[in-house]
Design a protein that fits this description.
The complex is a heterodimer of chains A (16) and B (229).
Chain A (H helix, E strand, L loop, with lengths): L4 H7 L5
Chain B lengths: L3 H16 L4 H7 L6 H24 L9 H24 L7 H10 L5 H15 L5 H12 L10 H22 L6 H28 L6 H6 L4
The chains are: A mainly alpha (16), B mainly alpha (229).
C-alpha cells in the first residue's frame, strides 16, 4: 500500500 | 460568560489559524497575468495542494486533536478537507482586496475547466460567507468545527470527536452572543453555512470526475485526500 502522505504530514512535528 | 479556559482555547486556535496560511508566493501567482485553461488548472491544483498542507498544520494545533485516535485523525482530515478548503477560500475571497483582485481570481477559476453547474453554487457560497463579515476568531472556530464533524466516513470513536466538537460549538456560541448582540440568529446563520458546505462537498465529487474525464492530473496529496485514483 502507498505510504500515506497525509499520515506523513500528520506525524511531522507541529509548527513545521 | 466566556471562561478563562475558553479564552485560552480561542487564542490557541486563532494563533494557529493565522500562523498557517497559504505562502504568499503561491497566492501571488494567482494574481499575475492571464494563463491558458491548462496553466490555470495546474495553478489551482498547486494552490489546493498548499491548502491541504496548511489545513493539516492548522489541524495539528487544534487543542485535543492529536490526542484522538490516529486513524480517526486521518478520517477527520479526509472527510473535512474539501469543506475546510472551501471555507478557507471563501474567507480569503471575502477579505478586503485591492480592486480587481476578486475579478481576476474568479476569472481564473472560471477559465480552469471547471464545469459551470459547479461554479454557480461555489460562488454563491463565497458570497454568503462574505455577507456574514465573520471576525478571524469566528472563522477559525467555524473551520475547527467543520474539521471535528464526528459523522465522517471511517471515524471510529464518534463520542471523543463529538465531545471535542461540542467544546468548540459552546465557545463559538458564546462568542457570537458577545460579538453580535444585535443579531441573536448569528450563531444559527454560521451553522447554516456548514449545511451549505456539505452540499458543495457533494458537488465537488462530481466536479472531480468532470475534470478527470478531461484527463487532468491531480497531485499525489490531492489524489489521496480526495480519493481520486
Amino acid at each position: 500500500e502507498e505510504p500515506s502522505l497525509l499520515k506523513k504530514l500528520l506525524l511531522a512535528p507541529a509548527n513545521s | 460568560e466566556i471562561t478563562k479556559e475558553q479564552r485560552a482555547l480561542i487564542k490557541a486556535i486563532l494563533d494557529a489559524y493565522n500562523r498557517h496560511q497559504i505562502p504568499q508566493d503561491v497566492t501571488k501567482k494567482l494574481l499575475q497575468e492571464q494563463y491558458s485553461a491548462e496553466e490555470n488548472f495546474l495553478l489551482l491544483t498547486e494552490v489546493a495542494t498548499s491548502q491541504v498542507q496548511v489545513l493539516v498544520e492548522f489541524t495539528k494545533n487544534i487543542p485535543g486533536f492529536l490526542s484522538l485516535d490516529r486513524e480517526d485523525q486521518i478520517a477527520l482530515l479526509k472527510g473535512s478537507a474539501v469543506e475546510a478548503m472551501f471555507l478557507r477560500s471563501a474567507q480569503v475571497l471575502s477579505k478586503k482586496m485591492p480592486s480587481g483582485y476578486t475579478e481576476v481570481l474568479e476569472e481564473r477559476i472560471r477559465k480552469s475547466g471547471m464545469s459551470e453547474e459547479f461554479m454557480t453554487p461555489m460562488f454563491n457560497f463565497y458570497k454568503s460567507i462574505g455577507e456574514l463579515h465573520m471576525t478571524q476568531d469566528e472563522q477559525a472556530l467555524l473551520t475547527t468545527i467543520t474539521i471535528l464533524t464526528p459523522d465522517r466516513p471511517y471515524v471510529k470513536s464518534h463520542e471523543a470527536v463529538e465531545r471535542l466538537q461540542e467544546t468548540m460549538l459552546d465557545v463559538l456560541r458564546k462568542l457570537c452572543v458577545l460579538q453580535h448582540p444585535q443579531e441573536p440568529q448569528y450563531f444559527a446563520r454560521l451553522l447554516g453555512r456548514l449545511t451549505e458546505l456539505r452540499t458543495l462537498h457533494h458537488y465537488h465529487v462530481e466536479m472531480l470526475t468532470s475534470w478527470k474525464t478531461n484527463d487532468h492530473k491531480f497531485t499525489p496529496l490531492l489524489c489521496e485526500i480526495w480519493d481520486v485514483q
